[in-house]
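ok here's the first one, seq then struct tokens
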Amino acid sequence: MKSALRAWKIGRVLLRYRLDDLLDDTPAERWLRLMRPFVPRASREVATQSRGARLRLALQELGPIFVKFGQILSTRRDLVPPDIAEELTLLQDRVAPFDGVQARALVEAALGRGITDAYAAFDTTPLASASIAQVHAATLHDGREVVVKVLRPDIARLIAADIALLKNVAGIVERTHPSADKIRPREIVAEIENTLAAELDLQREAGNASLLRRNWLGSPDLYVPEVIWSHTAERAMTMERVRGIPSDDIAALDAAGIDRKALAAKGVRVFYQQVFRDNFFHADAHAGNIWVDAERKADPRFIALDFGIMEQLFSDDQYWLAENFMAIFNRDYRRIAELHVQAGWMPPHIRIDELEAAARAVCEPYFTRPLSEISLAEVLVKLFRTAQRYELTLQPQLILLQKTLLNIEGVGRQLDPKIDIWAVARPVLEDILAERYSPKRLAGELRKRMPELVTRAPEMPRLLHAWLQQQVQGGHELSMRSTDLREIAQTLAAMQRRVVASILGVGLLIVAAVLYALEAGGPQLLSLPVSTWIAGVGGLWALLAAWPRR
């Protein structure tokens, strides 16, 4: 019954904001038509608004969960038309606070102890209130000022009910809407469900904050508040209280004497370092979650807040994306096309020359502008959108990265309208790629895997001896008389030789790695033991001998 009433309310709101046109050619259209006589006509003010604005207003009226739904939907620019996506970014996740005394009781229940045992002081008047949680100021017994984030009462049940309703609607749309394959409603709802589930676990958010803080500890560019783990649980989180200026409050930044030009460049660098150096980036980086440290005027830094939505890329996607950026910088459209196919984002049957031409058509108009006016995020979004015509398939985290990049560039241009995004981003990306694939980095990765290699190394001589013994004793001998079979036998013999050479090569490389890790004594050559060089060169020679030739 409650679901039916909720569906009725949603239908009324859709009609009042004249959004029924979004459901044309679906079964819902018929029901909405029946409801029209019972719903007041849209006001002239509403009727003159764009469809994106009308959708935004409707979501705000439907409540906090639908606001969150709209915010998440705004990140899926691969699924949502640009005009609607832009409007949805304006959704404000601010709702009326709930009772502070109730919040205190919820914190006590979450921490399993009385509020006076946990805090020296707890302010029942909230500092901020959003759809899922609200924040209160508090003081620890050691005098440290903190903020306490607590989930709204019964929020999990409310979210579950609305998600269930959205799943039903998605099922109907998927079965009946002519563009369901492009809209992918079930995928959208699943992503919303996963995102909200993550935001309902404040201990997970605290873990995100802790990792981000560790990545940027001591940095002059970004500060991340400390998590107070002794006062954090699944439904309540305590963090160091920080003070700053919202990054979009230009008047306050100027009044504080902040160097906005330096700050804008730092924002771009921080983003690229998060993505390509740390592979852990803030995916909800709008102005409300990015403050500026007002105490550092000449060398300003950002303060990160709200860590509910953090993302990582698969290592392969990280590499392909970085290479795509460099190809865009170099205007190498052939490389862009090849990378899209090599990354597995597009099927192998796609013609590279056609994709190259499409990439050129997207990018070339941008290069007619001054570099300070070129948005790398906009270029990337248009590239991906164009590639969709060629069966592009992207992971959701890449789509979220696009949105984050747009936000970061937007913050940068607000701070410094003349910032050259390309001039700032390119050297950062080049340095990160050079460091990432340097011999030093590879040696470090080898050291990490050394315990595994050392554990397996003693087995290699025995396995190699067993294999060679089988060859000598004719354990794999085959009797063949046909000419064709003789050719197969020769091929197999060659394969056996290559396998033996491969095993020998890998074994020698492992020996070299072990000798390097154990810092073997004896003569040195270029700061490495000669024995390591002999084993390594022998291993490489054996692997080259095993390499198939045509």
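and now the second one, same deal
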Amino acid sequence: MAYSIGIDFGTGSGRAFLINTENGEIVEQFIKTYTHGTIEGELDGQKLPQSYALQNANDYMEVIEEGIPAILAKTQIAPNEIVGIGIDFTSSTVVFVDENMEPTHNKEGFKDNPHAYVKLWKHHGGQDEADVLFKTALEEKNRWLGHYGFNVSSEWMIPKIMEVNNKAPEVIAESAYIMEAGDWIVNRLTDQNVRSNCGLGFKSFWEADTGFHYDLFDKVDNDLSNIVREKVEASVVNIGETVGKVSQTMADKLGLSPETQVSPFIIDAHASLLGIGSERDKEMTMVMGTSTCHLMLNKEQHKVPGISGSVKGAIIPELYAYEAGQTAVGDLFEYVAKQTPYDDVKEAKLRDISIFELLNEKAAKLYPGESGLIALDWHNGNRSVLSDSNLKGCLFGMGLHTKHEEIYRAYMEATAFGTKMIMQQYEGWHMEVDHVFACGGIPKKNTLLMDIYANVLNKRVTVIDSEYAPAIGAAILGAICGGAHTDFSEAVKAMKEPVLYTVDPQPDKVEIYKKLFNAYQSLHDLHGYKKASIMRDVAKLM
């Protein structure tokens, strides 16, 4: 019997899964909330700007150092039966480390420096730097920018490096290496210094044929090219290949065999495609959680405005992987739930149900458009298709009689409308969508939301029976690099998660949502394009 370990690092927690490579059975799992959580608001009493979202890299190693020994102890599986380990991670989550791969924030004199900490994907402190990169790329007529959706996001690695170099050059000077957190975990496991083609290709202005785009870096910052050459550049390992074996030191610490192979890291949402078995074109996959990623595969490389990149072989060899996304989905629903009136909170408590269950129950009784509300779901900026992290959300059509469940439903509909904007963008640039997959805890638990999505998109939505598709996908990569399966098709077929349910669109609801979407699109274009400065400037008033 052969097993693989898939380790999934999310925004708030890390998960280690032991998977049977023959049938995809989850044999054991370990889940740990990060000790330090997300560092927002303040760091050791020091106030942080609203745009900051930091983490402590030590939390990630705790997941591995506690999780792997725990699942081995519970299962009593022999170490030599575990053939491989796969890692998935949120992206772009950037780590600054010394020559020994120790995080810079652990070093003397840097514990109170926010720029020494991990910059989480939703850290937007480098927006000014992103703007400079974008403006310069346009001025230089860098046509390759089309491979990144003709945009530059403050979420990405290079703006974050520029931000640190501008605001805390001492951190850059102290850091021997800069990399995606997923690469860092792989390097800690193997005692190597390598990079994944998936992480570099989507978030770092790197392409397999040309390498890094130093032509742009030289134009925006005198130091940037040297920083990237000396601290970011390293040997690149492609998805589907193996980085190498677990080091003897880590094998001893974790209770693994030193023959265990380690896969290069893959972006968490991208791993989901493997976990659910989506490996063909014309299938759009929604990986829904705190945020949502919308992924597609295609044989050709198209320049699609507003997407986050297109990288060959980043998920499936020989196919281009495309990523778009929404920055607030689960976060947005949680925000609305926290504003629930006291009477509803009391009712939920008396009935022994959650606030979400109560809101879903009440929202389900409303028919589309009944409330007259339209929301713009930009509470954490807009990733696609506007690519503007400074935009702010808003709600239109409120009256004195507006009920909280109406607001909740309006935000659910807004995320569906935002998804339709993305789907239309794909289809408008020669990437037809025939079928939509959804995975994650949200679609698994919220059938009302999926009904809304099916009718807004006018597509069948297939919901996968897994909250942990990224971890399964990572385990599939571990199984491939460990030799348990010879290729992707074989591994995916054996280990993918099953279908939970499907939702088909209903013609009467589809027609209503066409009208509501037109209203959403009008507001989207007005406040996202024509009057976007208003939405951006609101944040600057504080």
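notes on #2: The longest strand covers residues 13-20. The two ends are 60 Å apart (CA to CA).
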